[in-house]
Amino acid sequence: MDVVETTVELAGRTLTIVHPPDPVELIDEEAFEHEEFLPYWAELWPSGVALARVVAGRPLRGKSVLELGCGLALPSIAAALDGAQVLASDWSPAALVFARGNAERNGAELETALAAWTNADKLAERGPWQLVLAADVLYERRNVEPLLALLPRLGKEALLADPGRPALRAFLDGARARWRVTETPAAELPRGGVFRLLAKSL
Ligand SMILES: C[S@@+](CC[C@H](N)C(=O)[O-])C[C@H]1O[C@@H](n2cnc3c(N)ncnc32)[C@H](O)[C@@H]1O
Predict the structure, then answer these.
(1) What is the pLDDT of residues 114-153, one digit of tens each?
(2) Ligand 1-lining residues (CB < 6 angstroms)
């Protein structure tokens, strides 16, 4: 597979993230018909960069961190470089191959797990996680309910970056029942931000 390299400056480090040049070329008609499975993992989205910047500023040494929908896994790599014990997860096996490769090329150690949000018992069983990360996971309305149901099973703190997708409002409205939600603006996300969810029952 052809790959290209994107450079990201993060907390004084220069990271290189390898990814396919054109995700459209990866579309698999059969997988799409089965579950509308599009290769969104293959792009480094602005939300991933924004979340990695927030993560890089936090004291995470020794903390357990889980990323959902990791794609190329930049936030997971940032957390691992800060000394966290990281599990990067996605439902795409190809994403996890790139996540592992990108971690290795940047000197970060992390684990990966293949898991869909509707079938994530093994992620919950390994919890509670001290921090859950998710970047640009609300690009479809159908993602809102599975994520609202899953997050409380994983831990008591989550950081979610979103560029202001239409489903973001529905997600935040649902989340406020169980979580205190605060927002950090991000230069990469002029219509969205990085949202911190802290469980109301700590
Ligand atoms: C828009 S991409 C964002 C990728 C990465 N977080 C970033 O910001 O660069 C959404 C990611 O969520 C994953 N994903 C989508 N639906 C999923 C599901 N139901 N379970 C697990 N992962 C899912 C996709 O494979 C993809 O990697």
Answers:
(1) 999 999 999 999 999 999 999 999 999 999 999 999 999 9
(2) 40-41, 44-45, 47-48, 69-72, 90-92, 95, 116-117, 135-137, 139
User: Considering its fold, how many domains does the chain have in total?
Assistant: 1
Q: Which structural domain, as residue segments, surrounds residue 78? A: 4-199
- Tracing tokens 């994983």 back to the chain, one arrives at 154
13 CA from centroid of ligand 1 (Å) = 25
The CATH number for 156's domain is 3.40.50.150
Whole-model pTM: value is: 0.95
